[in-house]
Here is the input.
Amino acid sequence: MNSRAADVVRLLTVKGETLAIAESLTGGLVAADITGVPGASKVFRGSVTAYATELKHRLLGVDATLLERRGAVDPQVAAQMAAGVRKALGADWGIATTGVAGPDPQDGQPVGTVFVAVDGPVRPDSGSAGGGKVEALRLNGGRAEIRMESVRSVLGLLLRELTGEHSGNERAQDTERNGGF
Here is the structure.
């Protein structure tokens, strides 16, 4: 079991908050990690695996013009996926993954280009900024490694939002990663 997933479930349980997940390249791996944690049913609302581009619009409310112009591998698409799943499933927090796991480039983006996003409640009086955040990643490795690192990254992003441990630009310079553990 992923310790990040366990930490997410624990923190959401303590806060009395819920989570919804929108996945593309990870194909349900994030939801599987969360539901692998005992007690996840207290916080996990559900997930949408919108692998096909048109489903990102139809199920998650991602702007059709954005998808047409930029493709599915885009930071704004990730942000809209997170906000869309949060709204569609009635959760306090929404997280999303979109990107290119390979073997071929997609939407003009090279293999390893990934965007992860979180959308949550805005709490100006707490350590958590809430709202929407997107992280751009450039991952190395094969398809499986890229997908697993995407899971770790989106859960890490959510953890930083839940705990208020973010300094704005902490990962912006740390986007080159090797997929292996």
Q: What stands out?
A: The radius of gyration is 15 Å. The longest strand covers residues 131-140.
